[in-house]
Amino acid sequence: MSIAERYQRVAAEVAEAAMAAGRAPEDVLLVAVSKTVGPEGVAEAIKGGARDFGENRPDQIVLKSAAFPEARWHFIGNIQSRRIPEIVASATLIHSLYQRRHAEKIDRAAAELSKVQDVLIEVNVSGEASKSGVAPAEAAELVRAVAALPHVSVRGLMTMAPAGDAQAAREAFAGLAELAAQIRSQLPADDAAVFTELSMGMSDDWREAVPLGATIVRVGRAIFSESYQE
């Protein structure tokens, strides 16, 4: 299978899973995580219909967003403070914000570009030491603080589930959805209206995420790796 064909297959499966969960296919956005391929792989995915791509390194999102400005670029990696201006210049949505100091720098970088930067707050729902993100108990306070910044819009939450354990993944995703609902109920109306996104689910666990409310799934290997096996 080509990258284009694999993208189309995954997109069809995501749409089917959404409908099986009683949701519209367009309610779940498929982000093709292109961090393992070069511009040729991105071009192949675009041929298959991909429009949203995820990158975890600043240099790669800068390079690829410049090469494919027609696509929407998502930054999903660790935020390095000194690279924030480059990330903001390239990213449609930043998924991995969990430090207030980074939010303030994103706000300044966005102001210089006369844009409002959409972000998600990363939450470490599982509590694993190997994962980054704000603790669930501290998420609401961070959301309120970031939402108050004039050039940042908090669009929702993101998490990564424990690997290789479907039940643990379901628990993490259900926990994120419950937390998001709690936070949304506490936000001012204008902030609550745009606080709608749940970025959760990757190649191995997006099927657990969609029935639990994922609005964005981040899929890399199932699209870009010839050797990926479900």
UniProtKB/TrEMBL annotation:
Pfam families according to UniProt: Ala_racemase_N (PF01168)
Domain of life of the native organism: Bacteria
State one molecular function term (GO).
Answer: pyridoxal phosphate binding
- Identify the cofactor(s): pyridoxal 5'-phosphate
Instruction: Report the residues modified as N6-(pyridoxal phosphate)lysine.
Output: 35
**UniProt-listed SUPFAM superfamilies:** PLP-binding barrel
The Alanine racemase N-terminal domain covers 22-224
Q: Keywords on this record?
A: Pyridoxal phosphate
* Similarity comment: family membership: Belongs to the pyridoxal phosphate-binding protein YggS/PROSC family.
Relate the protein's function as given in its record: Pyridoxal 5'-phosphate (PLP)-binding protein, which is involved in PLP homeostasis.
Protein's name in the database: Pyridoxal phosphate homeostasis protein
Source gene? Answer: yggS
